[in-house]
Amino acid sequence: MFSKILIANRGEIACRIIRTARKLGIDTVAVYSDADAASLHVAMADEAVHIGASPVGESYLRAERIIAAAKQTGAEAIHPGYGFLSENPNFVDQVAAAGLVFIGPSAASIRAMGLKDAAKRLMEKAGVPVVPGYHGEAQDIVLLATKAREIGYPVLIKARAGGGGKGMRRVDHPDDFSEALSGARREAKAAFGDDRVLVEKYVDKPRHIEVQVFGDNFGNAVHLYERDCSAQRRHQKVIEEAPAPDMTPALRKAMTDAAVKAAKAIQYSGAGTIEFIVDASKGLLADRFWFMEMNTRLQVEHPVTEMITGVDLVEWQLRVASGEKLPKAQDEIALSGHAFEARLYAEDATKGFLPAIGTLHHLRFPETAPAGASMRVETGVRQGDAISPYYDPMIAKLVVHGPDRASALAALGEALAGTEIAGSVTNTAFLAALAADEDFAAGDVDTGLIGRKQEALTAIALPGDDVIATAALAAADVSIPRNGSDPWSSLVGYAHFHAGARRIRLKAGDEEIAARITARDDGGFDVATETGVHALRAGGGKRLARWPGHVTVFAGATGYSFGVPDPLAKADDAGAGVGNLRAPMPGLVKVVRSVAGDVVVKGQPLLILEAMKMEHTIAAPHDGTIAEIATEGAQVTDGTVLVRFAETEA
Ligand code: ADP
Ligand code: ADP
Ligand code: MG
Fold first, then answer.
1. Residue ranges of the Lipoyl-binding domain (predicted)?
2. Predicted confidence band at 573 (pLDDT cuts at 50, 70, 90)?
């Protein structure tokens, strides 16, 4: 076994790998970018090496710096985690050339599966069922359109270099083919630098079911059952589970056999996942599943497999990479109970899952597992850490396990309802709505489920009057909240000395809410809102968080955030009275639409900021004359002035 390894990743997966390494007595080296200098994975590792600036291209994707860090610290092997360099065969070659071990498959295995078209041709040859379609080299549009017609609509155009759901277009009618093709090509070119595509049959009532496989360097390969990842939005996984609901013995046998066959066909070593698409329109049938792609790495959702098999997949990765044989034979791997994983993200489900950033001023996960279940919270952040625009905005993965699907799902609902996050918008309420959905609960899932019900699943529940009253009372307290301190301390004193009423203004979005608070003789408070008077007490088990300028009240899995206008902040605002425009987040100034001297009107688009992999149009906040404007191509940080307006005579 290794005595020291380097982890070429960040966030929850780096922390998760460190935990297993520590269990096995292996020292760990973390690498980090500027943005991650104070992050959890750095704090957890035995040593840490700074590898560059925050953008991934200047740090986590810099193979030579990562390898140098390993050499310099005496690490013997590199674990790539997922994403970043994990499926880059050139990196694997470089690691080997430096005399280090790559904890993962061979470069040849990664190359064999790296492009979806070549992988499909290879799998066809190995006798693995493959989605019917065209996986050839020729790419002219007439040929592709003819192939699409032969395959039969609907078809799916897919970037051969694709990943993360990018470069994919479903086409329902021949008339739409050429436009969809250009769209897929454009996206593929931008994301992967490769615009070649394949065309395949769009499977009816598709379910995404994948098989975890594991191989060693002695020709052994086993499977660790399946995971169902059909709950997807825009082809990205949202809640995963194992085993698949209503899996039949016949289909499981056929799929796991095919998966092991696929792994053996490429002499696969380490952890891998064979993704299949299943036509569930007539139930789960043993001849209605097809190979989609292989992910030659540890998968984000690997914990659900660990929960049902009791296997530590990272431990197996370390053992196999250090030259040991697979710890278990196929017949020693048993399946027990049911597990779910929910991916908690900083994103706005109500705005098309727009990624968000922010400081996690309040972050609390349930401390104990719901009754009868076990739970794992996989996270790379602590309270006070920030979700930055540089990386995937994942906050945590909530993983639960119960004796059966119903109890595990109930546990997931409870775990989500017990999660409190304030400081950034999150998808917690959306995940809870999905976990509570009747079709999802019945196991009647397919990849279209979320899309069909998106409106209901992402509807914003309005805060109840009791929530508003609680927020108003919390806002009336002026003590500075500190981690773990009683958020009500000054309010209690206030009650003793102030008999009169106090007016509170809250902001919910653009709306202003007024409340009036009076102290009662019994030590409680009457909070009058537009709709009624609530008798409340300070403290007393209310779930809330106060953070700069805000109060968040938690009800179930929903966090209701209110702005608390701060009378002291007024003076500051006045200083910037002309309303200079600042960058809401770090990013790249992509397009500039105005020049100094322009007279602009409120709402007029002035520039486009690219941040969080999306484009944000920045509009004029008021009428005015531009004195100065950012230059195209400039990299700006949070708060940088993008537009300075000319002083106006008051
Ligand atoms: P999975 O099925 O495991 O979600 P994906 O291919 O969608 O597989 O990506 C796995 C994870 O790796 C994603 O959640 C994403 O956060 C991360 N990832 C993918 N590509 C990159 C990249 N280029 N840089 C950083 N992270 C990435
Ligand atoms: P990526 O590399 O982006 O993960 P995949 O080939 O794994 O690409 O496909 C991503 C998702 O797209 C799948 O999980 C599935 O939901 C959907 N999908 C892929 N192929 C098909 C198909 N032939 N029919 C229906 N849905 C598909
Ligand atoms: Mg995939």
1. 575-646
2. very low
